[in-house]
């Protein structure tokens, strides 16, 4: 039998990933002079806030998780550090090409796909009794992907 994470641990990752995404999108929005691109990044940041709130509400419905630690906060410090390297690491901004609105949307779509893949992979290490909660997380990310894909298709039709 493999090592299982409690779904509350996965939700902590999810919250951190959403926090990192919001920070990145707001930072990029501040740097962009094109008002249409700026609106897209503000939209993305606001969506990350909404997702974070959804995940925070999910955490409230789960029993407290107290991992074995050498010192208080050790494990969640590890989780935060790990989440910082997933989907929205600090150097990700270098990948962003703001030369066109479609490239910006493609960048955001890749981040959403990375999130979806992360949660699908993580679902394997969550007990089957908690898979429905994982499915809700994945669905949140898929809805963001669909919104971005729809926006891209509309813009390409112009």
How does this structure look, described?
The protein is mainly α. It has one domain: Ferritin, core subunit, four-helix bundle (Ferritin, Up-down Bundle), CATH 1.20.1260. 71% of the residues lie in helices and 0% in strands. The protein has helices at 7-31, 35-60, 74-84, 101-123, 131-157. It is globular, with a radius of gyration of 17 Å.
Strand count, sense and barrel status of the largest sheet are: none
| CATH classification class | Mainly Alpha
**Total beta strand runs:** 0
Tell me the span between the first and last alpha carbons. 53 Å
Average pLDDT figure? 80
Pattern of helices and strands: HHHHH
**What fraction, in percent, of the residue positions are helical?**
over 70%
3D shape: globular
Q: Total number of helical segments?
A: 5
Secondary structure class reads mainly alpha
The CATH superfamily is: Ferritin, core subunit, four-helix bundle
Give the total of domains.
1
Spans of at least 5 consecutive residues whose pLDDT stays below 50 are none
Strand percentage, roughly? under 5%
Q: CATH architecture, please?
A: Up-down Bundle
